[in-house]
Amino acid sequence: MFSSVIPSYRLVAFAAVLAMTAFVPPASAQEHHHTVVIPGEVVFEQGPPSLPEGAQIAVLYGNPAEEGPFALRLKFPAGYTVPPHTHPTDEIVTVISGKLGLTAGDILDQSAAPLLAAGSLVVLPSGMAHFAWVEEETIIQLNSIGPLKITYLQDADDPRVN
How confident is the model at residue 20 (pLDDT cuts 50, 70, 90)? Predict the structure, then answer.
């Protein structure tokens, strides 16, 4: 079918070009490697000083203290709360296990929203005041662009000040 439309020498040239390009990965793939995180290999450490005591953290990708994308997991013990605060970048929060209460607002009100089950996703725009709480041990994943910064609405809520 193609031979009647495209001369045979052009078919050979086209096939040669296709063969060369089909097996050469793009430059970006040659320079970067993918990251794989296996659940059983995630190691949690004491949470950062910017969160109330009791949280644990596992950085999965990138460095939240530096510019660029990152992914981390936070493990919260039963009864844990994060008082109202903001961030200068968007956040994408996924509930991995347990249930998470998370909603917009400047006053921690646990009746303001239902608890979100594992598999739930919340996207928080930069600058939006929000707070979080859990009733049972809960693990969330946070994806964002660093550096990660948190500003509590009330200085008294900031564990770095107290």
Answer: very low
User: Which of 71, 74, 67, 65 lies closest to 34 in space, CA to CA?
Assistant: 71
Query: What is the mean predicted confidence (pLDDT) over 125-148?
Result: 98
The residue among 153, 132, 116, 122 whose CA lies nearest residue 81 is 132
Does the bond joining 147 to the residue before it have cis omega, within 30 degrees of 0? yes
Average pLDDT (94-113) is 95
- Taking alpha carbons only, the member of 148, 160, 5, 158 closest to residue 83 is 158
> Which residue has 């001369």 as its token pair?
7
Looking at the predicted structure, is the pLDDT value of residue 23 above 50?
A: no
Q: What is the mean pLDDT of the chain?
A: 86
- Distance between CA atoms of 24 and 73, rounded to whole angstroms? 35
For the chain, the DSSP string reads -HHHHS-HHHHHHHHHHHHHHHTS--HHHHH-------GGG---EEPPTTS-TT-EEEEEES-TTSSEEEEEEEEE-TT-EEEEEE-SS-EEEEEEESEEEEEE-SS--TTSSPPEETT-EEEE-TT--EEEE-SS-EEEEEEEEESP--EESSGGG-TTT-
